[in-house]
Structure formats: C-alpha cells, structure tokens
Amino acid sequence: MLNSVHNPDILTCLANLSSDEVFTRPKIANEMLDTLPKELWSDKTVTFLDPVSKSGVFLREITIRLIKGLEDEIPNIEERIEHILKNQVFGLGITSLTSEISRRTLYCSKKANGEYSIVNFSDEEGNLKYIDSQHFWADGIKCKYCGVNKKLYQRNKGLESYAYSFIHEDKPEELFSMKFDVIIGNPPYQMSDGSGKGAGATPIYDKFIETAIRLKPTYLSMIIPSRWFTGGRGLDSFRKKMLEDKRFVEIHDYEDANECFPGVEIKGGVNYFLWSKHHSGKCRFITYKKNKKVSESIRDLSQFNFVVRYNEAMPILEKMLSFNIESFMKLVLPAKPFGFRTYFKGDIKSSKNSVKIFVNKGIGYVKRQEIKINTHIVDEHKVILPYAFGSGNPESDRVKPIYSPPGTCCSETYLVIGPFESKEACQNVISFLNTKFFHFCITLKKNTQHATRKAYELVPLMDFSKSWDDAELYDYFKLSKDDISFIENTIWK
Predict the structure, then answer these.
(1) Of 165, 239, 264, 468, which is least packed with CB atoms within 10 Å of its CB?
(2) Do 225 and 266 touch, CB atoms closer than 8 A?
(3) Strand ranges (DSSP E) for 5-130?
(4) Helix 57-69 and helix 77-87: axis angle, to 10°?
(5) Which of 61, 63, 55, 131 is nearest to 96 (CA)?
(6) What is the extent of the structural domain holding 349?
(7) Dmax of the chain from CA atoms?
(8) Distance between CA 228 and CA 239 in Å, rounded?
(9) Does residue 321 lie within any of the structural domains?
(10) Residue 320 falls within a domain, yes or no?
C-alpha cells in the first residue's frame, strides 16, 4: 500500500502543439522568472504580460510568487488573489484553444466568469484574452506583419490562420490599454513558407521581441532559438539590433534544446534572456550543458557581428584575429557553384563530352554544354565540402572533404573550395580541413546543420604549400594549454 499519492504537475505532462509552438515546462519558466529582481514579487503595482500564452505556466508561476510576496501587504488570501489576477497578471492566448488552457491554469476555469473560477470576472476572458487578428496582405502576396505567404495562410473564418495578435496589430499597446512592467513568454518560432521541396520556414520570434521592446517595458524575458547568434534566415538586421542593444542584462544558452524542451528538436539549441531598460553595458553570458552551468563571462555583445557561443572560445578567437590573416572564405565559391540544384542527379553513364558530377548520395554525369556558370573551374583541381553536415553539435559534426579533380563539377549539395594548382595542394587543404582546429573555427559560426559560405568566415587562410595538423596549428597561433584543452574536449568528443 502506498503511503502517499503522487500528483504530478499537469503542466509538465502536456504534449507540445508542434516543434515550433512548444509548451514551456514550469522549471524553465521559473528559471526565467529568477532573473527578475526579487523586489517585484512584493510590489502590488507591478504588471506582467505573457503575450504568447499557451499553457498559462508563466502567469501561474508569477501569481504563485506574488501570492507569497504580497502576504504582508494584503493579508487576506482571497483579497490578495483577486487583486493579483485582476490588476497584475495579463495574457494573450496564441490561439482560441491555448487561451482556454491558460485560463484553466490561471483561473481554474476556461471561462473567467465561470462557476469554478477562483476570481469572479464580468466576462469569459478576464485578463487572459484571445484576439482573432488577421493577416494583412499588403502587396497581395505576403502579410505585412509576419511575412507569410497568402496562398498558405489565407483561410476561411473559423480555421486557425496563425495571425498572432501581438504582432498583427498596428497598436499592440491598445490590446489591454495599459503599460506593462514585465513582458515574458515563449513565442512561436517560425512559420512555413512553402518554399522548395522541403518544409521551408521563416523565423518570426524576432518580431515578438521587437514588438515587446516597442512597448517599453521595464523588463523583457523570452526563450527563443539560438540560431540568431550567427545566422537564421532573414535575421541579419535583427541580430545587428540585438548586438548593439546595451540593455541585455544576461543570456542563458542551452546548446541542447532537449534540456529545456524534452523530445523537441530545435537545431542550434535555445536561449532565454533578460532585457532591462535600466541596464546599459555589458551582458552576462552563461552556457549550460547536461543541465549544468559550465561557463560564464561578462562581455560586450557588440564586439563581433555575431554571438560567440562558448565563453572559452573568446581568448582563442582574439588570438587568431590578432594575426590579421585573410579569411578562408575567400576560397569558398557561393552556393550552387555550377548551377545545379540538390535534386539534380545527372546521367547514369558518361558519354562524349560529359564530365563527372558529384551529387547528393552519389555521382552522375553531365554534358559540358549544360554547365552555365563557373565553367573555368571544371578543369581545375579543387576540394568540395557538403553544404549540410551534422546538426550544429561540435561533439559530433565533422565535415568530410572530397578531392574534385579536373573534369568534375558538383550540385549545390556541395560547396567548392579552390581552385588550386595541383592535387598535392588539394591534399594539403584536406589535411587542414581534417583538423579539430578547423572544425573549431567552423563551430564559431555554425550552430545548425547547414554550413553556408559565411560559416567559413573565421577560418584562417593558411599556407597550403604544406600540410597541417593540430599540433602545428596550436603552435602557430600560440594557443595556451587551456585553449588547446577546450578545443580537444569540445570537438569530436
């Protein structure tokens, strides 16, 4: 016979809506709330908004903290709860369903004025609204607010269109007609754009952050993909603004998103941050691995045009840059080097006037006259690298270079390095590409599966009249024992 009954927190058991709209676990919500000043919890005038509520977990945990913090200020528990829920805690559901889930979490009833609601509101929504916003097709093709394609998201009334109200209103400050001291949440991450043969997607979490900052809260905290650190489709302008904004107090980075969202694959990991209008200066950057803090630094985010993910990498990068060596990216041709898409396979057999083409999962043959660009490279010595490899995890990601002799080309499955004068020079390049040092340099700009030309920006352009190994590279750049240990223990563990 059991001596006690185990009642799990229902918010730890909910299935995710999708890989882009995931429920936040109470543990992570509380870690984010822990970054806020403690005095907020004993202030009955502070207002909180979750503009992207799914399960209501942030609002619930905020309420729990306020109930305890305001105990002396409002001794009567019923009066305290009523004050908090009616005057301090507000939310916007991202869909009609999630607004009901959130109200059930916060008010114990999906209707705020329902029989079982712990606070009696005058309407069904209370302070947790769902607003049926619409996309606005400014040019007849894409939504002016989120950029999604009209063909994909123009839907009949009653069907979910994913026109999230927080970013689909010209004046989001009027959604509640009040100013909020704290804005916190876990926004949707991306929207399908229907491009290509795969599931193309455009990030939208940046729009939630930009809208929140426009509302001028005192504090802002959101958990988002870490892809924005170095890349992300269409995020160049957003990244520049983030790096130049001195109001970021701290960033908590998880390389493995499963530590925050079990069972959900988010390539490149996730991070949550604290932004404060009172802060102006350097940012505290904390990294986590296997649910433990592994490093911390105080740094100027604007030092580089991207975020250096690993604190231990900062001194290594600074030493490398001090040599003022040209970038290896100079040798990397742009994507789709010979004009052939990934799905191009070529002919099975060679024929007169055809050349070998390296394609996805094999080789084929293509007639010379079909090659329209970079024709002068076909008969040169070169090296090719897969455009996509691994997942952004330095412990397992390893590129496999291929010697591409004269009389060969490739599809966009590969990037081309070169050309070079001889096979020997290519072999020297390949020796360099097989080092941990090279992969460390790639890791600084690559945190997803794809390695675009820009991923090679921080790789130094070495003298390829000779071969290279790690010991020679460590000595060349005068790396310390700690530097070397970090590279050796991070790459291909």
Answers:
(1) 264
(2) yes
(3) 48-53, 89-93, 128-129
(4) 140
(5) 131
(6) 328-490
(7) 91
(8) 6
(9) no
(10) no
DSSP H helical ranges for 88-189: 96-107, 150-153
Strands 201-203 and 190-192: antiparallel
The pLDDT value given to residue 4: 42
Nearest to 32 by CA among 179, 211, 220, 209: 220
Both 256 and 200 in a single domain? yes
Cβ 162 vs Cβ 148: under 8 Å = yes
| Residue 55 sits in the same domain as residue 16 | yes
- Tracing tokens 């493995």 back to the chain, one arrives at 256
Question: Does 319 map to a domain?
Answer: no
* Under-70 pLDDT residues of the chain: 1-21, 194-200, 493
- Bridge partner list, 93: 53
Nearest to 271 by CA among 244, 301, 304, 314: 301
Q: Return the sign of the alpha-carbon dihedral for residues 464, 466, 470, 472.
A: negative
What is the full DSSP assignment across 318-329?
HHHHTT-PPBGG
Whole-angstrom distance, CA of residue 55 vs CA of residue 61: 11
Give me the pLDDT at residue 11, please.
61
Residue 481 neighbours by CB distance under 10 Å:
8
Domain count of the fold of the chain? 2
**460 and 351 together in one domain:** yes
Q: Phi-psi category of 47—alpha, beta or left, where left has phi over 0 and alpha has psi -120 to 50?
A: beta
Q: The tokens of 335 are what? A: 């994507």
Residues 352 and 276 in one domain: no
119 and 246 in a common domain = yes
Residue 469: its pLDDT value, please? 97
* Gap between the Cα atoms of 229 and 270, Å rounded: 10
Q: What is the CATH number of the domain that holds 188?
A: 3.40.50.150
Residues 296 and 363 in one domain: no
Shared domain check, 196 and 76: yes
Q: The pTM is what?
A: 0.88
- Whether 20 and 102 share a structural domain: yes
CA distances from 100 to 92, 125, 441 (A): 11, 9, 47
